[in-house]
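Moderator note: this is an archived Q&A kept for reference. The question asked for a predicted structure of one protein chain; the sequence and the answer are reproduced below.
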Amino acid sequence: GLQALERAEASGTGAALTEHHRTWAVRAHLLERAGSTDAASLAFAEAARRTLNGPEQRYLAAKAEALRTAR
């Protein structure tokens, strides 16, 4: 999961992937599943910052906050 995402980002089209909020959301999900809740929280917050969609932004921000407060 995370290694495949890193390889995709390192490829020629990786810059476009890195800028997209969904890539950050995928990273956050994979980090959360791996037990890296601090990193996942930061990635969810970054995904929320990058999206322009209100409902998506609220969902991603809520996921980030839930992980921050679950420590």
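Archived answer notes: The longest helix spans residues 54-69.
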